[in-house]
C-alpha cells in the first residue's frame, strides 16, 4: 500500500521522520492529504516551535481538523497558530491547481 507521500524521509532527523509518517497515516484520506501534503512540502524547513505546533495538530481528531481546515467550524484559539493558518492556506492556493 502506498502512503501518498512524494517526499523521502532520507536526510530528516528522527522527529521530522516520525511527523512525516504520521502525517500520511492519520486515519481518513482527507486528513492524510491535508497533513501529508503540507509535510511533504514543508517538514524539512519547520522551526522547532513550528514542529511543536505541528505535533499538536497531529493529535487533533480527524473530523475536527477537517472541519477547521474547511472552515465548517471555528478553530479553537490554542490551535489557531500561524502554522495552522499556513497549512490551511497551502491547500487553498489557486496556483497549485491547473
Report on this model:
The chain has about 100 residues and is an all-alpha fold. It has one domain (about 15-95): DNA polymerase, domain 1. It is about 55% helix and about 0% strand. About 20% of the residues are buried. The model has no long low-confidence stretch (mean pLDDT about 85).
Cα distance spanning the termini:
27 Å
- Give the overall shape: globular
Mean pLDDT over the full residue set: 87
Beta content comes to under 5%
Q: CATH class, please?
A: Mainly Alpha
Low-pLDDT windows of residues: none
CATH superfamily grouping: Flavinator of succinate dehydrogenase
Number of strands: 0
Number of helical regions: 5
Question: What descriptive keywords fit this protein?
Answer:
mainly alpha, 98 residues, DNA polymerase, domain 1, 55% helix, 5 helices
Short characterization:
By secondary structure, the protein is mainly α.
Reconstruct the topology from this structure.
Elements: H1 14-23, H2 29-42, H3 48-58, H4 62-70, H5 82-91
Helix pairs in contact: 1-2, 1-3, 2-5
Amino acid at each position: 500500500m502506498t502512503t501518498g507521500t512524494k517526499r523521502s524521509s532520507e536526510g530528516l532527523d528522527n522527529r521530522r521522520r516520525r511527523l512525516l509518517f504520521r502525517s500520511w497515516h492519520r486515519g481518513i484520506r482527507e486528513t492524510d492529504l491535508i497533513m501529508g501534503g503540507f509535510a511533504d512540502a514543508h517538514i524539512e524547513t519547520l522551526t522547532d516551535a513550528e514542529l511543536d505546533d505541528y505535533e499538536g495538530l497531529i493529535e487533533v481528531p480527524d473530523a475536527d481538523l477537517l472541519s477547521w481546515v474547511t472552515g465548517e467550524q471555528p478553530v479553537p484559539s490554542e490551535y489557531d497558530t500561524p502554522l495552522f493558518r499556513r497549512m490551511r492556506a497551502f491547500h487553498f492556493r489557486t496556483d497549485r491547481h491547473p
